[in-house]
């Protein structure tokens, strides 16, 4: 997303461990290898094919079910339909399958039911846990029996949003609930208790009956995986100035954390992380936690690659902002992937759109296959099909996870935005593909994102897009459309130099649309998004299916 070179692209161990066709013949299908505007004319004259559901109604275990905490699946008219639950609702199966308000939860949070039974949030759903004694309720927490001395409070962080015109960051900061942060109480160096802040940032921790001067409560920008160990975090690399992404983190590298004395919180339980304390890192973690939950919701509760996001205020990176599935041992554990975020005066850490974009690459690395095509790219400038697919997916994921079509970022002192729903940008004219150039033409990454966005918003659920990303056809080389990876450089004027076709198979947008269509996605929605007669000539009438 226009941030210079993009490299396609962990902690608390003690605590957690496409010859042609004849357009004059009505209703005559195009040849299988057809490309270009002539073929597109044939394609658009064809009748709409019947959408083939990926799952027959008789295969459903019940007339309806929850496909994870955010997706409701039901049989209607002999076809399986999916519906994404609203932001503040969760899919439940009792007493009937429905998206119900007030049931959403953060993994690791507990609560008491009206009958005083203990419930724990696991994989985005509440589940009952056995308790020998009745559950005792506390703000943001439930305990089996009386917990003894406790301290309750709320964690918030100061963050800035774009102004109304998306020209700069707002002058005033807003207090935002710190959801899903790990919070720990200490008596000196001894861990007394730990939990995860709930959706409102609330917590209740066991504390010492007689708190001393060294007793503290610490909030960490860290989240746990299914095994209970820290699996994602935001960390200070302890490096200053311009750095290469290959740089080794400094000896003082640490997960971002914020501390208050127990005595201080006892008198004033509102724990607000200020800008001067690095609340920008908290904003990044908020996005990281949302991405982690969104992916788990879409993929049956499975964790993604353990990931650390590096943010050091005053530290910049050779890639600008980027992600790579490069393992690193740091902060007391092995991380399988990394995100690098700039800490300069642009304060881009406030852009949840940009941070979520980088995590879109993480989703692809965790559940799909990267084209492995990285190099310089710019807003409004078409790039190679592999890179356009990778970057376009990442921007679409950002829009889907945030439920907003507007991408925004700030670079070189200037804020810019891209609106996928309007195909508009604040910094350049929108560049669309040309039908006569074929499926493997260079494409603007934002056009790829706009195609995905427009197709997805035509349905009640974006789940088919996540299914297509992880489909066997999208993760098996060689890919059906025959694209091969390129490497290149750009000169000071942005012109391409040293272009090399490596001959290595790589997926692209057309392969993804094949996977989507082969699952039964409606042709009308794909054609409406691609405009095959004039823009991207994807032959939706004849996808290449395994």
From TrEMBL:
Name by which UniProt lists this protein: Carboxypeptidase regulatory-like domain-containing protein
């Amino acid at each position: 997303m226009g941030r210079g070179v993009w490299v396609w692209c962990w902690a608390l161990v003690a605590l957690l461990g496409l010859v042609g066709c004849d357009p004059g013949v009505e209703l005559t299908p195009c040849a299988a290898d057809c490309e270009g505007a002539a073929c597109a004319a044939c394609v658009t004259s064809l009748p709409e094919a019947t959408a083939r559901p990926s799952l027959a109604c008789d295969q459903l275990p019940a007339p309806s079910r929850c496909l994870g905490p955010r997706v409701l699946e039901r049989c209607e008219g002999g076809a399986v339909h999916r519906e994404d639950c609203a932001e503040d609702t969760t899919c439940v199966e009792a007493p009937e399958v429905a998206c119900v308000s007030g049931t959403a939860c953060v993994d690791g949070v507990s609560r008491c039911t009206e009958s005083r039974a203990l419930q724990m949030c696991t994989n985005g759903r509440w589940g009952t846990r056995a308790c020998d004694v009745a559950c005792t309720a506390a703000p943001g927490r439930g305990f089996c029996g009386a917990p003894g001395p406790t301290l309750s409070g709320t964690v918030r962080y100061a963050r800035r949003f774009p102004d109304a015109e998306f020209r700069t960051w707002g002058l005033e900061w807003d207090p935002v609930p710190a959801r899903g942060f790990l919070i720990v109480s200490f008596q000196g160096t001894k861990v007394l208790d730990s939990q995860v802040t709930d959706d409102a940032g609330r917590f209740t921790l066991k504390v010492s009956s007689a708190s001393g001067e060294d007793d503290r409560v610490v909030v960490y920008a860290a989240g746990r995986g299914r095994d209970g160990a820290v699996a994602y975090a935001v960390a200070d690399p302890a490096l200053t100035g311009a750095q290469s992404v290959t740089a080794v983190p400094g000896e003082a590298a640490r997960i971002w954390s914020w501390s208050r004395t127990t005595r201080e919180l006892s008198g004033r339980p509102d724990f607000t992380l200020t800008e001067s304390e690095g609340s920008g890192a908290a904003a990044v973690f908020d996005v990281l936690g949302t991405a982690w939950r969104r992916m788990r919701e879409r993929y049956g509760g499975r964790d993604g690659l353990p990931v650390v996001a590096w943010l050091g205020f005053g530290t910049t990176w050779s890639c600008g902002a980027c992600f790579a599935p490069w393992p690193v041992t740091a902060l007391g554990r092995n991380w399988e992937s990394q995100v690098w975020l700039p800490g300069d005066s642009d304060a881009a850490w406030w852009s949840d759109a940009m941070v979520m974009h980088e995590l879109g690459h993480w989703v692809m690395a965790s559940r799909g296959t990267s084209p492995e095509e990285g190099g310089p790219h710019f807003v409004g400038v078409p790039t190679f099909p592999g890179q356009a697919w990778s970057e376009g997916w990442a921007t679409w994921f950002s829009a889907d996870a945030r439920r907003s079509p507007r991408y925004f970022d700030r670079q070189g002192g200037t804020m810019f935005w891209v609106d996928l729903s309007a195909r508009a940008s604040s910094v350049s004219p929108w560049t669309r593909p040309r039908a006569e150039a074929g499926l493997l033409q260079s494409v603007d990454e934002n056009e790829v994102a706009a195609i995905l966005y427009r197709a997805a918003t035509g349905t009640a659920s974006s789940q088919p897009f996540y299914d297509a990303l992880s489909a066997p056809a999208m993760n098996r080389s060689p890919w059906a459309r025959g694209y091969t990876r390129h490497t290149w450089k750009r000169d000071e004027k942005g012109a391409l130099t040293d272009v090399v076709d490596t001959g290595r198979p790589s997926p692209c947008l057309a392969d993804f649309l094949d996977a989507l269509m082969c699952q039964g996605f409606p042709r009308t929605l794909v054609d409406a998004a691609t405009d095959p007669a004039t823009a991207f000539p994807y032959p939706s009438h004849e996808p290449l299916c395994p």
